[in-house]
C-alpha cells in the first residue's frame, strides 16, 4: 500500500511540525497525545501520518456525524482520491469503506469494540476532540487504554485542542506532542444586548440583538460570520431575523438536527460574505471556510439528569471559558479576525474554566450496559478520566436489570450483549427485538426514528420520513433477525407500541389539560402536534421546560397515539387498597393503577393490615392524639415512663416515638376492632397499655410506683409521676408530724402543701426543714384567714387532720 503524501496533505498546516515528531513520540509506548489548537490541521494530518507509521489501517473518531463526513471528505480531497477508496467514513445510516483511514463517530467504534474486543484489522486509533468530554469518547479512552495494554501492536493517539492534554497522556501512558496555534490577531469586542436568560429561557429580544450584531459586522467588515447560539430553536430564530434584516446576505443554519445536505451546505466555501448560525457543533471539530467574524451569545446547552422525575433535559447555561476561547479562535484561522461577544466582560471572567464532563450529568443507562459488556460493571478498574457518579450508575444498572440486560452482579447477560450491539440504546434495542417479529419493518422504522430526531406525532413523522429512514430500517431489521416476539401486546397502534415498550414509564394519560405519565411526572403537550384529541400517549421524549412552554415543569416533545388496552398491557395494572383515618374513622378504597396513573377507585372493607397502616399514617401525622387517653390510661403511662427511667429493664419505654414504632406489641387486638368500624377514640387505652407490662415483674407495679400515697391524716392521695419527681398534693394539716418525705424508687416525694381552700402554700421534699423554718411564716399568714383550721405552734406533735378544729 502506497503511503500518504504528507507534504502535499500538510501544506500550510501548523500541525505538520508535530507530525514530524510523531514517530519518535510513539516509539516508546505506542501511545501519545497530540495537543493542537483548532485550525492547526491535526484532524486532517495525524490520521494519514499514523497510517504511514503503522503501515496499516487507522480508525479516527470525531464527536459528531457532520464532523466525521467533513473530515473524511477533506482528507480524501487532499489525497487526490475518492471517499470510499483510501479514506472512508461510517456514521449511523451511512457507510463508505476506506482501506487506510476510516472516520467514525465514537458510538460506532464503541459497538465495534464490544463486538470485537481485539479490534482485529485495526493498527491505530486516533480519538479526536477528547477535551469535549463526551460520554462515548470518555468510555473509549478507558477501553482502548486497556486494549492497548494487551495489544503491543496497537497505536493509540488522543487529540486535544486544550491544555488538559497531560490528563489524557497520564491515562493512556504516552508523551504529549504539541503544536503551536496559528496566531492571527483577534479584535475582541463586547457588545452586550440586555438579559440573555429569563424565566422563559433564552430571551427572543437577546437573539434579535445577536442577529443585528451579525448583520452589522458583515456589512462593516465585509467577511463571513460564524454565529454561536445554544440550540436548534435559537438557530432558527436568528436565521429568520437575519433574513428579515438583510435579505441579500446569505444565511445558513448549522446544527445536528439538519439533513446531511443542509449541514454540508454550511461547510461549502463561498465567494460571497455570508452568515452561518451554529450551535456548539462548530466550536472545535469543524472548519467553516471564509469566516473572519465570530459572534458569540456566550450560551451553551448541556444535558442535565433530573433523577427525581426520571428524565434528562437540555439546560441552557453560560458556556465555559474554554468554549468561549475556542469560538473566538474560529475568527482567526484564515487571517486577522473580529470577535463580538454579546455579553459583558464580567460574564467572561466568571465563566467556569472547562466544560462539565457528560459522564457527570447524563443518563448513564447505555454507558452502564457498554461497561458491563466490556467486563467492567460500573466502570470498576477501567482507566476513566472521571468515574461515573455512584447514584447515576446505580440507577442505570437498576434499569438494565429490569430489562434483563445485566444480572445481580451487574455483568451483562447474553440478552444484554445483544442489546449493546444495536445502535439504538438498550431501551430501544429491547423494543426492537420484541416488536420486529410482530410488526416487521414498521417496528424497525419506528426505532430508527426514535434513535434519531423524533418530534411531534411519531406515527406521522415515520410515515413522512420513510425514505430517509430506509437504510437504517433495513439495518435494524437485519440486527433483529431471529428475535423472539413479545407476547400479549395488541398491535392496533404499531408506533405507539414500540415507543411504549421502549419507555413504559412514559406512557401517559390525559388528565384535564395536562398529561400524567406512569412515572408520576405531569407534562404539557404543545399545540400543533395533532395529538390533542388522544386519551393515551406513548411518549418518546419529555424534557424539563420553561414557563414559555407549560406550567407543569415538563413538556412532551415526541409521542405516538396509544389505546388503553395496549397501554395497560405494557405498563401493567396493579390493585392496591389504601386506608386513611378520616374524622376518627378508618375508610378504605381499592385503587387500580397503571404505574402512577389511577384507573379507578372504589370504597372497600378494611382488613387488619390496612387498618394498621391507616392508624400508623394517622399517628405519623397526628401522633397519639388520634386516641383518647382516660385519666387511668394517662396515669399508667406516666408510671411506666417513671419505671423505665428510674429502674430500667424490663420496664418498657412509653415515649411517643417508641409506642408508634411498636404498635403491634400493645395495640394489635384493638386494630381488629378499628378495622370493623370502632372509632380510634373509643379504644380503651388503659387496657392497651397494660399489654406492655412485663411479667412477672408487673405484680410489683403498685409496690414500686403506688397510685396513691397515705399521709399521716390517714387519707390517701394520688401520686403524679409526670414530672422529674413524684408529686403528692394535700392539705398542709394532713402532714403534721411527718418529718421526712417518703421515697419512691429512691426519689423523695415532692409535696404540694395546700391551704384549706386548696390553694398552694409550699412545695417541698424536705418536710423537716419546712416545719423548722418556713412553716412559722405560713402559720402567721394563714391562722387569721382560716381560723377554723388548726395552725399549731408545734407541727411536730400536732394531730394530722383534714378536718376543722370543731369537727376534730
From TrEMBL:
Residues 213-375 form the Helicase C-terminal domain. It comes from the Bacteria. GO terms for molecular function: ATP binding; helicase activity; hydrolase activity; nucleic acid binding. Gene3D superfamilies: 1.20.120.1080, P-loop containing nucleotide triphosphate hydrolases. InterPro entries: DEAD/DEAH_box_helicase_dom (IPR011545), HA2_WH (IPR048333), Helicase-assoc_dom (IPR007502), Helicase_ATP-bd (IPR014001), Helicase_C-like (IPR001650), HrpB (IPR010225), P-loop_NTPase (IPR027417), RNA_helicase_ATP-dep_HrpB_C (IPR013689). Keywords: ATP-binding, Helicase, Hydrolase, Nucleotide-binding. Coiled coil: none annotated. NCBIfam families: DEAH_box_HrpB (TIGR01970). This is ATP-dependent helicase HrpB. It comes from Corynebacterium meridianum. The gene is hrpB.
